[in-house]
Design a protein that fits this description.
374 residues; alpha+beta; Immunoglobulin-like; five-stranded antiparallel beta sheet; 8 helices
Length: 374
């Protein structure tokens, strides 16, 4: 049996493979050593062998509750991902599986490679309504790409959608793929109509370095981008610094920041209720958006989520709270599960790339219905 993680987004350290019933592995820390939880590795030479892959430091990860009632994903072709029996005793995460082929991959969630990211950029640029610019080159040398969709005009609203500040939350970029596919669908009358009134600025992957390195939350400098919005720097958090600069230059009337949550088995939205300028109109915008989304996509719900911050107590380093306060606009964080949804489970796949894409497409309905309030 050979364990390998030397590829885009790979993350695991192999301790021993001599006993297939007790393969011992460790998750590697993000740069900076503050976070770890993402894993992604290949197993070869185990066809037909009942195997137990024990991740022995799972109890030391950033969010141990994320492994409670969790099932890992597996794939033979890295195209179709399915859930496999997984146990967590508070210390060790154990994946139990008998591979059917000579090579199988296991991951925390279905990966979204940088190659696929580049293919997504190339595909949307075939549409004349789309242009792109590289806001900066990341510390590891990757382009940070901003897509502009539609023709800017003084009478149009500027809608920003950003994703994957936390690189291990790969469902965010699957969401982006579904969102962009619908937005550019000429046969969708809503998509055509919203582009008559809006320009979209989209950053499909805010953290390319962390994505390729196999990080959970941090960039190549060991920084959590979603704690850097109040005071980003070119040296340590250039991704946030240059996106903020672009928002200042181009204008912003709305921002949706797309994430994944390790522990909660729900799709939900967190707003900016705790900011100093929060008011009744902002509350109406937020409630309208969530209500429409829950109506058009039953996988989204409004009952469960993060506790709402009391007035004046918001963490202003987050994108949503900083943007809402600084730009006086509707800003939200959309969270998806690593697990399955409690109310409408699909045990074979759990929450999946396909479901993430459907939710991405459904958000256009909520944007359209909320637009008159912006």
């Amino acid at each position: 049996m050979i364990i390998n993680a030397q590829f885009d987004a790979g993350n695991i350290e192999c301790l021993q493979t001599s006993d297939p019933s007790d393969v011992q592995l460790r998750i590697r820390n993000d740069v900076g050593d503050e976070h770890k939880q993402w894993f992604y590795f290949q197993v070869s030479g185990a066809r037909g062998v009942a195997s137990r892959f024990n991740i022995v430091n799972a109890g030391e990860v950033s969010y141990p509750d994320g492994f409670v009632n969790y099932q890992a994903v597996a794939s033979y072709d890295r195209q179709q991902w399915f859930r496999v029996p997984t146990e967590f005793d508070g210390k060790t995460l154990s994946i139990n599986h008998t591979p059917e082929t000579d090579s199988v991959y296991y991951a925390y969630f279905a990966p979204y490679s940088f190659e696929r990211h580049q293919q997504l950029i190339g595909a949307v640029l075939e549409d004349d309504r789309v242009s792109s610019e590289t806001l900066c080159t990341t510390p590891d040398g990757y382009p940070l790409t901003l897509l502009t969709i539609g023709e800017p005009a003084a009478d149009k609203k500027n809608l920003w959608v950003i994703g994957r500040q936390h690189p291990g939350e790969t469902m965010a970029e699957w969401w982006m793929e579904g969102f962009l596919e619908r937005l550019l669908d000429d046969n969708d009358s809503l998509s055509r109509a919203i582009l008559d009134h809006c320009v979209f600025y989209v950053v499909p992957n805010m953290n390319p370095d962390g994505s390729v390195r196999g990080h959970l939350r941090c960039n190549a400098k060991g920084k959590n981008l979603n704690r850097a919005w109040q005071s980003p720097t070119i040296e340590l958090t250039p991704e946030v610094y240059y996106v903020r600069e672009a928002m200042e230059q181009k204008g912003i009337d709305f921002c949706l920041d797309v994430h994944g949550d390790e522990a909660l088995p729900y799709n939900f939205i967190a707003g900016a209720e705790g900011i100093p300028r929060w008011n009744d109109h902002m509350a109406l915008q937020l409630d309208t958006y969530k209500s429409v989304l829950s109506t058009v996509c039953p996988d989204f719900q409004t009952e469960h989520g993060y506790p709402v911050s009391a007035p004046g107590t918001a963490n202003m380093t987050l994108s949503t709270t900083f943007i809402a306060e600084h730009f006086n606009c509707l800003a939200m964080t959309l969270e998806m599960p690593f697990k399955d949804t409690t109310e409408r489970p699909m045990p074979e796949t759990g929450w999946s790339p396909e479901r993430s894409m459907r939710l991405g497409a459904a958000n256009l309905d909520a944007m359209w219905q909320t637009l008159p309030l912006l």
